[in-house]
């Protein structure tokens, strides 16, 4: 990685919304990152409180894709666009894991693929994000 | 609308993640909804605390699209997939508004278009969501 | 428009794949274009020959979005990414119309929204394209 | 596969637009397909005739995703929506290859991931398609 672990964690833990999410770094190497989203009741998205909100999952996808690219560029990158396909609901009390890999590392635009899984490895969602790397 | 205002507000205000967001209903009619997201520091997405996180905007898009369809179906609907295009950053202290309209009202699948604006009417993001209406 | 009609038609009619499609210009102004795709049997996508292929519709969406932006930039622009939502099949013998409008006109990236309709005005598909305007 | 090779090839070769494209089957197994698109001048997308049109690539993505799912369902499936990210232009005289795999095999909706490469294995585009499997 072109960024040291301490700086990487700083970008992960400093933003206020990241703090709300409580994201943890599981693993990172060049072009790859795995993040953990420990369950919080604040993530629940339905009236009965059974499922994790799709917006939380979209945020996790956005962030994980960004961090896959941060392994190359060493800094956070603006998201240009984002696509999320929801495969099955994240359940109450379920910690989620995001695995993101670089699809394209470009001078102006880069792409990351992201998969969200539960602790049993079942896919919750897949996503693809386009990020602006022009100023990197 | 096929849903009364009180029930509509209940679906908007009950889920825990909606409470975190603090969403307010501005306007709703058949196939149309306008929501307000009053600014909170918890939404900030960068280390300097200057911009609203793209994940918060994605959630707002997801929710607004859902509520445009709730005006037809009278209940929350699972999101199948979601696309977000970010146009300009939402700034610190900026309240955001989501305007969502129905593109397709189908028996099994429905589509909503969503625009996120600031209070000056500048577009922050546009999105399109596909929702499962099969069980409605 | 920042491009004269003759040049606009040249960009529309010269590429080999555009010739295969047989695209016609219906209307164009700054930030807006309407194209016609006259039906051809070569567009049929199923074994029975009943429906227009989704790939033809995706191409029409891509091209119409490009031409909405050509009204600003005066030249063809590379597509960065494309999203297509299919609403109902295009039928055999049905001419299709693409209406495209500019969503964002940026220095490096621009966005267009596209709707495909049949001659009765029924929506066949909607799309959104991101185009590279960096070199414009 | 739940479909024999002869029937598979029939679905690939019968539709008129598939004939225009001249698609060839390279390989197929359960949840996987590789198709070849031999170059034709009719695919060229720019005035100079240097690049393969993005609409042809979008069609190839749509079709390959469909065929990945045909290995499970034994019949063609309507595309619900489609996303294409263009990575680099397909060049004149370049044969393209589409590799598609199943991401989700659902009772009502299924997802396929598709990568388009040239003969040197360089990625030209990636795509993701959602298909209606409700009537299968």
Using the coordinates above, name the CATH class of chain A.
Answer: Alpha Beta
Q: Which H/E pattern describes the elements of chain A?
A: HHEEHEEEE
Which chains have the largest interface? A-B, 38 and 38 residues
Number of strands of chain A: 6
- Average pLDDT taken over every residue of chain A: 96
Which topology of chain A does CATH recognise? Answer: Thiol Ester Dehydrase, Chain A
Low-confidence stretches of chain A: none
The main β sheet of chain A shows up as: 6 strands, antiparallel
Describe the structure.
The structure is a homotetramer of 136-residue chains. Chain A is an alpha+beta fold and 136 residues long. Chain A has a single domain (5-132), classed as Hotdog Thioesterase (Thiol Ester Dehydrase, Chain A). Chain A is built from three helices and six strands, in the order ααββαββββ. The first copy, chain A, has helices at residues 5-13, 16-21, 54-73; strands at 24-29, 32-37, 79-86, 96-104, 109-118, 123-132. A six-stranded antiparallel β-sheet of chain A has the order 1-2-4-5-6-3, with helices on one face. The longest helix of chain A is centred in the middle third of the chain and has 20 residues, at 54-73. The radius of gyration of chain A is 14 Å and the shape is globular. The two termini of chain A are 15 Å apart. The relative contact order of chain A is 0.20. Chains in contact: A-B, A-C, A-D, B-C, B-D, C-D.
């Amino acid at each position: 990685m072109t960024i040291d672990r301490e700086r990487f964690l700083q970008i992960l833990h400093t933003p206020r919304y990241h703090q709300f999410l409580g994201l943890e770094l599981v693993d990172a190497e060049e072009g790859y990152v795995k993040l953990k989203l420990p369950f919080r009741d604040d993530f629940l998205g339905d009236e009965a409180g059974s499922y994790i909100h799709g917006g939380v999952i979209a945020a996790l996808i956005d962030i994980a894709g960004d961090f896959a690219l941060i392994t190359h560029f060493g800094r956070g990158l603006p998201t240009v666009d984002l696509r999320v396909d929801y495969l099955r609901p994240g359940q109450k009390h379920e910690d989620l894991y995001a695995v993101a890999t670089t699809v394209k590392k470009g001078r102006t635009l880069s792409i990351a693929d992201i998969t969200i899984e539960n602790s049993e490895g079942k896919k919750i969602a897949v996503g693809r994000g386009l990020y602006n790397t022009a100023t990197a």
